[in-house]
């Protein structure tokens, strides 16, 4: 992980990885395209879609005692174990919900309604699901909401800006793992350590939805009380979110059936396909990891797989910025601005915010689409962008977010299209 510019997958492995995903080079109509909008969703593993279809087609209820019901119960148990494996979590509760946003609201509500304190702390870069949960429950509980500012020079949040807002009266801290506009990673480990030095029993909630597909999460190094991720941004399928809660957070009063255990969070019948999807995602990452380790331990394989993904994506990011013999990088194309750029790529996930001179952001997105590229405009008129963009002094940007299943040829093609767009707009 020490390589500052990353390490590309070998060509043969890159081809194998691509073959495991749906619609990497073409859309479902067979039209050639680059899907560089993975921060808004994710290219899907074929194995996940197939497994979800198989498991969801089973009419059986996992709460019964017959053979297929017990099989479904095993699928759910394995998936629960794999949620903990992804996070390197021990104990606690795994909460499966329709969306990761729903899990975030539920976790923040349980803490805000049951933990004493006069203020709640968050950051300006949070996704609305966490920021709005904090804001709404701060208002309902008559607490002060303290918001750490962003750093336009880094595109992230300074640790000191978060920690200075915490005191003995802080009820809960909510912080995101990485910005979904700049790609800047937030130093969660330092925030947890320094925040708990101020208040040792502080409850901490983390949004890992954006970061989980790009880098490792290790709750043994960053012990928090709630953290969520979404399979649909993690090579999986929509309609599912997972939240892990610490033992003490899981036992806080929350909505549940009265006959269920104190730390049980799921409401209604389980959907075993949700858990099957997580296991297929973990299986895939472990397959990648087995190239670099002989260990039979599943978490070890997962760690190596995610490290390989991170290194490959860092190499793609370096190529996007600096280019190759085939095409200049975004930093070197006249008429292209790279917002929130940072020289240390180890502090970045594979997300870029750019603009092209002479083109309004939504127009830029449409021009890219005409040329077979899907990107996304982040503009201040959107509830999903306004607060973050304004904190950076921006009114908008075009977000570019490839995935590790893309290769250097895909990046070069994008750069060639961008160069032509910029030249045409000049």
From TrEMBL:
* Alphabetic keyword roster: Lyase, Pyridoxal phosphate
InterPro entries according to UniProt: Aminotrans_V_dom (IPR000192), PyrdxlP-dep_Trfase (IPR015424), PyrdxlP-dep_Trfase_major (IPR015421), PyrdxlP-dep_Trfase_small (IPR015422)
What is the protein name for this chain?
A: Selenocysteine lyase/cysteine desulfurase
Q: Which domain of life is it from?
A: Bacteria
Q: Which GO terms describe its molecular function?
A: lyase activity
Domain Aminotransferase class V per the UniProt entry, residue ranges: 35-414
Organism listed in the record:
Rubrivivax gelatinosus
A Pfam family reported for this protein in Swiss-Prot or TrEMBL: Aminotran_5
Keyword flag Ligase: no
Per its UniProt record, what Gene3D superfamilies does this chain match?
Answer: Aspartate Aminotransferase, domain 1 (3.90.1150.10), Type I PLP-dependent aspartate aminotransferase-like (Major domain) (3.40.640.10)
Q: Keyword Lyase: yes or no?
A: yes
